[in-house]
Design a protein that fits this description.
heterodimer; A: about 800 residues; alpha/beta; Pectate Lyase C-like; FAD/NAD(P)-binding domain; twelve-stranded mixed β-sheet; five-stranded parallel β-sheet; 22 helices; B: alpha/beta; Alpha-Beta Plaits; TIM Barrel; 2 domains; eight-stranded parallel β-sheet; three-stranded mixed β-sheet; 17 helices; about 20% strand
Chain lengths: ~800, ~550
Amino acid sequence: MRAKKKSKGRSQKKNPPSPPFAKGGHGGIMELQTVTIYGNVDVERVPSRILEEHIQQAVRDGARMLNIITDGQHGIGGRIWPRGETVRIIVEGPVGQRLGSMGMSGTEIIVKGSSSDDIGWLNCGAKITVLGDVTNGAFNAAAQGTLYVQGSGGARCDTMTKHNPRFDPPQSWYFRDVGDSFAEFKAGGISVVCGVNPRNPDNILGYRPCVGMVGGTIYFRGPIQGYSERDVKLLDLTPQDWEWLKTNMKPFLEAIDRISYYNELTRSPGDWKKLIAYTPQEKRTRKWFKMPLTEFRKNNWEKEVGAGGIFAEYLDHELTILPYITTGKERRNRPIWSNEKYAPPCAYACPTHIPTHKRTTLIRQGKLQEALELVLQYSPLPATVCGEICPNLCMQSCTRGHIDTPLNIDKLGSLSLDTPLLKKGDPTGRTIAIIGGGPAGMSVAWQLALKGHTISLYEASDKLGGKIELCIPRERLPHKILEKEISRFNELGIDLHLNTRIDKNKFSEIYKTHEMVVIACGAHQPIKITFPGSEDIISAYDFLKDINLGKKLDLKDKKVVIIGAGNVGMDVASESFNLGAESVIALDIQKPAAFGKELEIAKAKGTEIIWPKLTERYDKKERKIFFQDGTSLDADFVVISIGNAPLLDFLQPGIHIESGWIAVNDNYQTSDSKVYAIGDVTGLGLVTNAIGQGRLVAEYIHYQLMQAPYSPEIKQVIPYEKIKTEYYDLCRLDSFIPEKDAERCMSCATCRDCRMCEVVCYWDAISRVVYENGSYEYIVDDDKCTGCGFCAGVCPCGVWEMVENI
Amino acid sequence: MEPATGIRLDYNHQLSLREFPYIIRWRDDRCKRCGNCTAVCPVKAIEPTVKVKRVVQSEGPIPTPTTTRGITHVIEQVTDMERYCTGCGTCTLVCPNEAIEPEFNPQNKFLHYKNKGGEGYKRGGRRNDPSISTLDRLKFTRISMLTDPALDAGRHEFRIRTLLGRILPPDELPLKSENGKLVVDRESKRFIPPVREIYPIIIGSMSVGALSPPMWEGLAMGVAYLNEVEEMPVVMCTGEGGVPPRLLKSKYLKYFIIQIASGYFGWDEIIHSLPLMTEDPAGVEIKYGQGAKPGDGGLLMAQKVIKLIAQIRGVPQYIDLASPPTHQTKYSIEESVMKMIQSMSMAWGFRVPVFPKISGTKTARAVLNNLARNPYAAALSIDGEDGGTGAAYNVSLDKMGHPIASNIRECYLDLVRQGKQNELPLIAAGGIGKKGNLAANAAALIMLGASAVAVGKYIMQSTADCFGYENNRCNLCNTGKCPRGITTQDPKLYRRLDSDKVAERLVEVFKAADVELRKIFAPMGRSTELPIGMSDGLSVNDKAIAERLEISYAC
């Protein structure tokens, strides 16, 4: 047992009584029963549980002043409910842990010496005064009450203290200093650390205080070494703080018997600082970064690696950020109004490149006559060729055919039959000779004459038209159409030499007297193959020519066999039936090449086509033709139709011939730069090929003669996918009306001025501009355009195209 | 064969949209036809076009059909395999009306068709396997409860660091006592390997060239920030593609591991810069393989070799740059180890840790054991099959390679058996953070035995919003058309990317990973040392995995 204290003048017994507490008398006016309770009885330590029972029993029995002589018992002084009265407890002797824990208001505990860990744990209002040090965990989770400490605190003091708004906040006062991890997760209450004679003179709040602190205030006086900066902030005292501190300092110092320090501790608010928690709002608005990255870039990074960063020396663009949706030069793609950049399928497929899309445009504009005239710029024989004998490659490729039927381009050609001759250009005085008055020769003559050149045309027969005149069955081409167009041709007034067969001398003369010579004499030498009996068969050329010249063969009830089942063979077959043939069989050694109207007509008349058949011999007496495969056919009359070769005996040696055909380059120029060759003389083709070549060579010759650089306009065909056929409804016309047909034209690759692009553009980037000459253009405002491709996506004609914006 | 006479072919040999991996869901009722989507689509998989609508109605009391016809403008997905929708969703990003969105089509037969011209499908990204990886199945089950003190990640201070470099065992250290203190005996001839204390998550090798200038610089700047401002010693591997001289000469070089690979690009420029360097790099990585594409080399397409790339790599502009699958003069481990490690160490006077990187393989232990005997080998980096790449054959990406978990585990246990587990650090890579669990995957690998992990794809996704995903989403890295501006050299695209933002995100990613690593390590009671090989902390709910990894089974 250690020193005993008197309570209100009552002395205790010298020796520990049995039972281990002694009731005292009443003192003064108050009914204040004093009791002394012993923690050690008969040299035997009383267990904490028993001591606690004794204390509780004493209070229940009315004790209000308890002297407890302890022996290391835990939890002394807590949970005392005096019901409005004050219970004073003085503790002497070794103190166990959690003294005053769960202490209630009204309980006042004075520890005469130092205490052990967790003093004041979960304090609910007790006033605890320790006249010595408190060790680790003092005041942990205290919610109310006070803790006065005369000495220092251990580690983790004042952690988890709270403030319940129903009560005053808890207060803890440390006269000297506190240990490490002070006030962790402090949620409320006031701590005061006076810093007098601290055990650690460099740091009175210990290592890393206030981690997780969310509330309350810590007043301290003296040096510290850091605190949890993310949780609390360090501030000076306000006048209110100072007032509170001065007021409450006095009772503290009195309680711990250190009132003499009052003046020193309240000398100046400047000696004190306070730590308070950041509010949740402050934490939320706190900047995540100690330094903004832009600042780091400027002040650290670029200072070290150079302005613009580590790559700046290689980059030649602005070092700025671009949005995803960009305009101007930053767009990934840009639209181009590529009006007429591509050829429409019709014009592309036509060897003469007749621009039907332009004709329909004119018709839609109400300029039918101009449309009909336009074709004459391309061909002297639109009604004959386009209208009658051409397989119309234009129509075969017409985009309109993808949804209903192609445009009636053939009928449009026929419409130009009565169109008068175009105005000729002014005479140039340039002379060109053309040998051959067939479609090729007429085409080149037409083109060059229209340009004002002086043309001499030499034709072996007595008529113009070549094979059209000679070999095409009249039933396929009404003769008056050809005659009409030839008469228009003749209006050109060219120097025409009919019945003039060219031989070496004549050619030499022509060659000398003209600046350019175009050979367009065709291929009029039937190709024959020799086999036994081949002398008894007739060529298709001669057969057809004889018919057109009026010589009538009688094939009545004859069985006709045609060797060669191409289109000429089909014409022969048709004519054979016209001449009364009983049957016609056309043979070929390979898949027959016949197509189009020729094939249709011949088949309709009953022509049979057989392949592959290689002829071995023809026996005219037996009227049988034998084949290499051992088969045979009855044949009263055999025609060979495997093509014609040109007659080139008039040529001078300087003009190169290859396999019987005149060799030409891309511009139809022969090995003699003054001599050109076109049409069948360079290789067999369609009439439309001959006309096309005539136009192209005329173009080239014109540039040569006028000494202008020749840059032919070579257009690629527009892909079908670019034409938006969806805009057009199915429309099958019963009869041909040019205006109706022009509406059906999809105007492939040519702007139809519908304004769809202008209207669809969300960004208002497209506008239509009209120039003084009446022409128009759609233009893009690059500063508005994002390159989205809507214009290209919706253009009915495929005029807009998107390109990489580079 | 030719089309039948007189018949125009229509859908013959046209692919149906159902074969495509992503199908565009476009909403007519929401679309205002502004064209944002078509303007940004990196592959031109969508385009505006025209549709016709025809409605037949009968309003009278008897059948009285009338037809109305109207045409409307729509956004349409093309069915051209060369312009397939990659599902990147840039259209969705820029659509002001939420009117368009690509939807993954699990029925797609993409790989049946993506071989035009007889060429195998090449792409970027990583293994197209969205299933849960082994790493994501591992759980941390040894929680410190009342048996031992639990730590609080928020309250307790602890550093997460690892060592890059060979660590000599104490008895091999040339130490002597001087005035009662242990000091290094400088006169000893013994080689003391260089060691760096670094953060255990390394930014994996992504080259200048594979990445765009703002992406690479953003990462580099973020690394500098983490070191200088946050005091986190994060290092980044440069990848093979040279290093900008401005960086080589700067003090920040110490935060970078320079890579040398089979193309040796940029190395003459690096050597030219040697005398100008004020700092040593953090390390040198010799790349022998890449987990994403073992046996497949690299190819930087000519159009990506712009002035910047050409000068940094020391090559002419606009040529193809090939990194072969193998180092051309090195055919054995011995040669590789002897020649390369020693030469690279020599370049910086043996002051820099030099280590090889191999792709995950069954033969990894053979390499490891060779390195264990080589005093200059600073570590072994193993890159598992779930790593990423800028360009590779799909077959290499999808079908070649070894998962990292068991590979790193068997290597670590091999070291344990030799008693060398604390000497030669293992670096694990390949699929870390595949599902976003960066810290958890890293911690799992560390506890399986890795000293550090290297991360690439996760970094691209988290710092620059890379669209890539394992349903073959986007994966356009090889085309130079990266819609985010990460893997492109086209200024129009890469100028979408703000390097400051990339750096900022990198800082956030690392700070968050650091918090999460603490949240994993603290409850397991580890605060001072990285729990390398602490496999008793791991469990998995799959017996076979548990057995293979020699960890516990928990369910």
